[in-house]
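Bumping with the actual sequence this time:
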Amino acid sequence: MASTDYKNIELPPKYTPKKSEPYMCPQQLAYFYQLLSAQKEELVSESNSVLNAVRLADKADSAGVGDESDNATYEQEITMNLRMAGRDNNLLRKINAALERLEDGTFGYSVVSGEEIGLSRMLARPLATMTIDEQEEYESRKN
């Protein structure tokens, strides 16, 4: 299991991982841990708001308040909010998986080959699990 010291590192304000640092050094791990944790916290907060909006719209719809147009609007709002919640749940699963990879020391390395994914790619897409070449090959096989 990887060292979890990165969870306790205080980074300087506006720290950004640099290629001159060793790949996935404790500072870089701390950066990604803090980034992913903040994204997770925001998503959970937004999910609660979405669920509350769905509940409110459902209550208004089931109370029989309004005309057919209002009811159609409520149903559309519920559907849209549920879609957003589904998308957020998918993203939350990916964030949790990335946090697990941080924990077990595999974050930043391909799940296919074990090769470094690369700092530039991880900065652009912290949830990446494959190198660019592997991802492109996966996408071409998928289509």
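The tokens above came from a reply further down the thread. The mean pLDDT is 86.
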